[in-house]
Amino acid sequence: MRRLRPSSDKERGAAGVLVAVMMLVLIGAGAMAVDVGQIYAERAQLQNAADAGAMAAAQQCHAAGACSEGQARIWAEELSGPNSNDGATTIDSVDLSVPNQVTVTTSTLSGSNTFLTKMFASALNAPPATVRAYATAVVDPVGGATAFPLAISDCQYDLSGPEVTGDIQLIKYKPGSGTCTSTSGHVIPGGFGWLDHTGGPCLAATDADDTVPTDTGANYPGACDATLTLWKNTLQAGGTVEGTFPVYDDAGGTGAGGWFQIRGYATFQMIGWRFAGSGDPQVFRSGMPHVGSAANVCDNPCRGIIGQFTKFESIDSAGGPGGGGADLGSVEIRLIK
Question: What angle, 0 to 180 degrees and rounded to 10, lies between the N-to-C axes of helices 14-64 and 69-80?
Fold first, then answer.
């Protein structure tokens, strides 16, 4: 019978070496998983900062009428830091090369004072990690609306450039305001006109760069009593009433075939009004001292609205399709990247 020999000395400790190698691999894999998780978390913070910075810069640049990259950077930095939980956000660049767009790039560079310096991978002598994110905000004119069924002539629009509000003015019903030449070169009736209720009671659905049917005559639509009562109560309580109305730059047709060509949308801050009839709520604060000057008084048989054009910005961080038409001070600011 052959006797079993003990293993040779060369095979001793092999299992220990294998365990040590596997432990190193497992520790390295775990370290990498932790590091990747940290990088993804940091990138999420940087994306929040870039989104906030781009929206802030776009809003401020539009409000100012124009801005430099230096000004846009300052506005972006004011909101980028507070929107990053670790506060380690750097604005790498602000790009204004595309009209009505602001692109902000943010980053965090690994260093002695940042959150990424304690990465496990540093034990393996890995190089520092730089994480970046960028966002683009766009300023688009309002492209369509379903609102109070009234359209204002391009002749009356007086808000431009960096102005926040225009002068207080009386806008009369179109037959009482004569005609004028719009910015598109068409001779159009001044004042305002009623629209067909295509969006529901006291609502007209319209789109920029499109024609819309008009409601013939100066008669006030009784379906709008509830809206005017709400406006009146808001103003009496010290509040502000702003309506975003379509602005027409061409008109044609007669009777049931009448139409307006919509140039864009402007926001008009209502002060008072006098529509057909003399009751409540058709007539409200149409005289002194509410209307600012004797030139804006709308006594019977005047039919008109009194107020001033003002800038209006709708913030929509969810993005979506862009608007159309001219920029008449009423815009939508949204993220597109």
Answer: 120
Rounded mean pLDDT, 60-87: 78
Other Cβ atoms within 10 Å of 145 Cβ, number: 21
Per domain, the residue ranges of the chain are: 15-141, 144-313
Q: Report the predicted TM-score, pTM, of the whole model to 2 decimal places.
A: 0.76
Q: How many Cα neighbours within 13 Å face the side chain of 320?
A: 12
CB 235 within 8 A of CB 291: no
CA atoms of 146 and 140, how far apart (whole Å) = 18
Banded pLDDT at 288 (limits 50, 70, 90): very high
Please report the pLDDT score of residue 34 as a whole number.
60
For residues 66 and 57, the answer to whether their CB atoms sit within 8 Å is: no
Buried b (16+ CB within 10 A) or exposed e, 15-29: eeeeeeeeeeeeeee
DSSP at 214 = B
Q: Which residue has the higher pLDDT, 269 or 26?
A: 269
Burial-class residue 99 by CB neighbours within 10 Å (0-12, 13-18, 19+).
exposed
Give the Cα separation of 272 and 285 in Å (integer).
5
